Every structure is written in structure tokens, then in C-alpha cells.
Amino acid sequence: MNKEAEEWKKKRKRDFKIIFLRLPLVVLLLVFLFTSVPLFIDSLGLCAICYFWVEVGEDLKENNVLSKELFIILLIIGGIYFVISLISAFFSSAYLCIMVGIGTYGYTLFKIYKLITVGIKQYNLRADYSLLVGGLGLIVGIGLYFYNITFFGVIVAILFSIYVLFDDVIRFKVEREHYKREL
Asked: What angle, rounded to 10 degrees, do the helices at 37-62 and 68-91 form?
């Protein structure tokens, strides 16, 4: 078998495992939705935080910059962040929403960095810059939360809206100019 076929099979197996693991989670979320809305919100927030860290890891892996050491660092930082978020969920769903908002800063800045690097400049991601940008996003999110809670929420919404718009424009540009690459 050629290399492309083997990679396709690996990706297909991984996608099947993700779908298989996602199905019980969706059923559990539906049960929470109809039984306890605060528990549903908490579960949804924790799933979003897990998604942020998995997506960053996958993006780094796709660009061949995810070394074993970086994977361990991401796993430790993500685990600590998840545990802090879980503990905050026990106190109030509002605290978990704040943790999701702070995580959104780091995730969105990382994704904007990825779009600029891979989409516009057509370079590969660098692990050190990726961690720096994501960490800077987390620090900015924490700082804005302590500065002004309302300002924090407005900036999260604006930043995420800019990312979505920026992502659509870059994807349109790539498809329009018939590049032989994926984003």
C-alpha cells in the first residue's frame, strides 16, 4: 500500500473512534438537558474546554511540530486547566463559564496565529510561537476578567467573531485561488 492510503486509513480509524466516543457523550448531554439545566451547562462547558486542548494538539500534530515533550506539556497544562474548571463548576456554573471564556481567548488567538501562518504566509507552525500565543491569550483573558467582567465578555464575543470572519475570508481566498493545500 502506498503512504497516502495508509494515512487515510489511520485518519479514518481515528475519526471512527472519535465518533464512537462522542455518541455516549451526546446521549449523556441530552439526559442532562432534560433533567438538570445547570448540569447540562457545566457538562457543555467542560466539553468545550476539552475540545480546545484537543484541537490545539491536533493542529500542532498536523503541522508535524508536536513532539513528545510538547505533548506532555500540553497534557499537563490542559489537565490542570480542566481540573480547575471542574472544581469551579462545583461552586457555580458562572465560574465555569468564566473558565470557558478565558480558554476561548487562548484558543482563538492560537487559531488566528494558525490562519496567518498557514493560510496567508504559507509557513509551517512553530511550536514555541504556538504555545506563546495560546499562553498569551490565557493571560490576556485572565487580566481582562479581573479588570472588568463586562468588558471581558464583550471582548470574548468580538474576538471570536473576528476569528470566524477571518477564517471564512482566508478559506474563501484559498479556494478561490485554487491552492493545492488545506486549512
From this structure: 170
> d(Cα 128, Cα 66) in Å, to the nearest integer?
11
CA pair distance 97, 51, nearest whole angstrom: 15
Residues 101-114 pLDDT 10s: 888 888 888 888 88
- 116-146 pLDDT, tens digit each: 887 777 777 777 788 888 888 888 888 888 8
Gyration radius (Cα) of the chain, Å: 18
112-144 residues labelled b (16+ CB within 10 A) or e (exposed): bbbbebbbeeeeebebeebbebbeebbebbeeb
* 164 CB-near residues (< 8 Å, 6+ apart): none
8 A C-beta contact, residue 39 and residue 32: yes
Cβ-based neighbours of 27, under 8 Å, separated by 6 or more: none
pTM for this model (two decimals): 0.75
